[in-house]
Design brief:
The chain is of the alpha+beta class. The chain has one domain. The protein has two helices and four strands. The chain has a four-stranded mixed beta sheet with strand order 1-4-3-2. β3 and β4 form a beta hairpin. The longest helix is centred in the N-terminal third of the chain and has 12 residues. 16% of the residues are buried. It binds zinc ion.
């Protein structure tokens, strides 16, 4: 990981942001309180995989792995 141009949230801040994303809440930067967070993939894409969130203002970023079990709730009717 290069450090140039990329700032990471402190662990406590990253946890706040990740928790908000998991709860599908509006993402607000825990560092500068800007409600403009670039999320990759798009917010509507809840497929499993790596989720990256970067603040458009202060440039801090956090990422986590979205697990399939969270992304796709089991359908009890399926079997
Ligand atoms: Zn920020």
């Amino acid at each position: 990981m290069g450090r140039r141009g990329i700032k990471e949230y402190r662990p406590a801040e990253a946890l706040v942001l990740i928790a908000a994303d998991r709860d599908h809440k509006v993402l607000v930067c825990p560092s500068c309180n800007t409600p403009t967070i670039d999320r990759t993939p798009a917010l509507t894409d809840q497929s499993a995989g790596r989720v990256s969130m970067t603040c458009a203002k202060c440039g801090r970023s956090a990422s986590y792995l979205l697990r399939a079990s969270l992304a796709t709730p089991e359908d009890p009717r399926r079997q």
